[in-house]
Amino acid sequence: MQQGLVVAGHGRHCWVEDAHGVRRLCHPRGKKNLAVVGDRVLWQPAPGQGQEGSIEQVLPRRNLLYRQDELRTKSFAANLDQVLVLIAAEPVFSESQLARALIAAEAAQIRPLIVLNKSDLAEPFARAWERLLPYRTMKDPDAPGDGSAPTPSDAPRYPVLALSLTTQSPEAVRAFLMPYLEGRTTLVLGPSGAGKSTLVNLLVPGARALTGEVSQALNSGKHTTTSTSWYWVDGDGDGDGARRTALIDSPGFQEFGLQHIAPMQLAACMPDIAAHAGACKFYNCTHLHEPGCGVLQAVGHAGPDGISPSRYKIYKDLFAELSRRRY
Hints:
two-stranded antiparallel ribbon; CATH 2.40.50.140; Ribonucleotide Reductase Protein R1, domain 1
């Protein structure tokens, strides 16, 4: 058996890249070997099947980003270094969807990066940038620091960047984003129409051709992202063992279920809530109605030391949603 990397998937079928960069269509052997993009697997050629093969084992994962609603679980990718959440100034993005993606990343211990597209649209961009103020100023409760200024603890939890994929050149987009992407495996995540495939095509020469090959092999869509695909940003690499840069393009979403997260786990996945949860009078505080709640006391306070009303509403709504357990 050989070790390989899953670089595309649709249903039970996937493409696996071997150590020489050769990709082939593989099928899982049994239900336990269902793999997702980013998985390291053990595979072997299928007898008499040409360039096809079978996945014999999925190797242990560092992490897995997925969403779960009441009916099904949808896995995005495994073994990620970060998630780039791409939203657009127009049409107006859903803050609830953004928050859900960030919460899922936090639950999987994957650090997110927020990118706002369409900065060329002056008025829509200004409104969107203002809506992102709580995220641009949100402190990192896990960063070290002794309280003096400036300290690492003053850094925001989420880098929030702005670009225009339709007016900036590929060279400009690459120069702007590569300091955040270089040497990392990054999943590009976001709602439909935000520009995910456009971003990948700007950063990865030939990505459109690769997408066409994958679509034909997996019998999926040819013009929109219906399957998750892995792209090397640094081409074939130089073979010196240096950490390579990869992007993973994922299908757009309109819903983002978080049924895999327990209600009492939610606060820990929202850094601005978590930053004040330690000041609560009761250890099992739900941050909804209890006296002496540090979270409730911080709601509505301006600046990075407070919690915006919109963020707290998202917390309340999600807590109620996650409390409706399935039986």
